[in-house]
Amino acid sequence: RESEYGWIKPENTVNVDEGGIMAGFGLDSLVIGSSDPRRKAFLKGSQSRTWTTFIEAITADGRLLKPGIIFKGKELQQQWFRDEFRKIADWYYITSDNG
Prior knowledge:
Blueprint: E1 14-23, E2 30-33, E3 41-44, E4 50-59, E5 64-72, E6 92-96
Parallel strand pairs: 5-6
Antiparallel strand pairs: 1-4, 2-3, 4-5
């Protein structure tokens, strides 16, 4: 592949993965609908759920880039970071309207 795309260096080739968790989901919700998978089902419950996104990346030469976390909100809040998180203090943190 390098002979075909020799102008792209391995340290400039990045594989990025995105995942996330939805907080507040499941315990107070009900699924209402038919057991027929072709028909729609509805989720009934609290709508106060928040989504937190995690982004991680690695270069083709094996270098791990610092992970990033996107919280839902206007600005970062101190209560989101406890003493246990000091070992990940150099990660990137940001907020967005959607998380």
